[in-house]
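User: Fold this, then the next.

Assistant: Folding the first:
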Amino acid sequence: MGSQGRFFPAAPQGRCQGSYQPRAGFAADRVTTEICHCGGVVMFSARSKWVWVLFSLLAAGTVLADSYRIIPMNQKHLATYYVQASMLGSGDVEFMVDTGAGYTTINEYTLELLIEAGNATPVGELTGVMADGRELRLPLYRIKRLVLGEDCVLNDVDAAVFPQETRMLLGLSALEKAAPFVFSTNPPRLSLSNCGTVAG
């Protein structure tokens, strides 16, 4: 085992001399990796090193997963998922999650409530394309504070305003505020990593 096989920098040069002891029950042993002791320092083969690199990455992923805020989704129809949210002025509302939509959308009824509460300001217009191919000029407003689930706060979310009481969509203009995020269907949930706090 040469220097390429050293796992710890303090390990001596050359092959392991003396007793060679595969460690029973070790995950690395099950992938035919040689592990031995040399001068009181644990030595690993190159194959074992990659196993431990993979293990470290998986462990890091677990730590990162613990930092995600989990927002349950409710499946109402095939491949259609909704999340509960709340906004100052509108109170509790429901958004359909649409990761293919560039903008979050709200309807005119909800906008009126947000404006009355000082929770939305106009920022411009955009052109929306309807399902039938028609183009529609839509007002664009900035929602100062939107809370997903119980405590995932998103600030300054741009939202296009659709007529009357149309279904509201949670699009990328909101989801990117909490990126990186994970959309999972089994179980149905959103995992968001950059939520603000309700107290904040």
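Now the next one, as you asked:
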Amino acid sequence: MDSITHLCTTGLTWCSNLVSPQFWTEMLQTYKYTIVIAGALLEGEMVLILSGAAAYHEYMTLSLVMLIAFLGALLHDTLLFFVGRLFGKRILGGDSKWQARISKVVNLIQKYDRYFIMSFRFIYGIRTLTPIVVGAGSIGFKRYFFLVAMSAAVWAVTVSYVGYSCAMALESILQNFEKIQKYLAVGLVVIVGGLYFFLRSRKRKA
């Protein structure tokens, strides 16, 4: 019984670590670019944002973070495309609970074609499924690869730079906190006050 309890506790700890920024920060400091590859393969924005922040603090090189993230995302999309091409009909037709989501992806591909293929990476909930569905369809690999390569480049550069910029902004705020704290306080009062009056007006209308 004790061993089962220990196993469950260990499992819960690992699960909580996977969504903890502190955990990924420590992993990045230890394994650096290896974690960037893993994050890109899993399309984990949090890992890439933290990598961009680490690059600002000179633990890594920003351009290399972007390049590795791009290659990892491209590998992710390519592997899943061929999974769909080789086993798609068996995988997609095997479980009825996925049919609604599969139908949604198929409809989006038919309606928006290349625009959807270039943007599915930014849509939560269908990022892993879409390359499999595309691979199981009639779209050629060369065309698919060209579209997802452009998408992966935009994703890698944008998300990495968001992390880099956030780290730079945070450092600037902390360095000048005494100078800007009164402006932050005024801004907070304005936001809270505006939210209060907005909610109050909605309640009156209701």
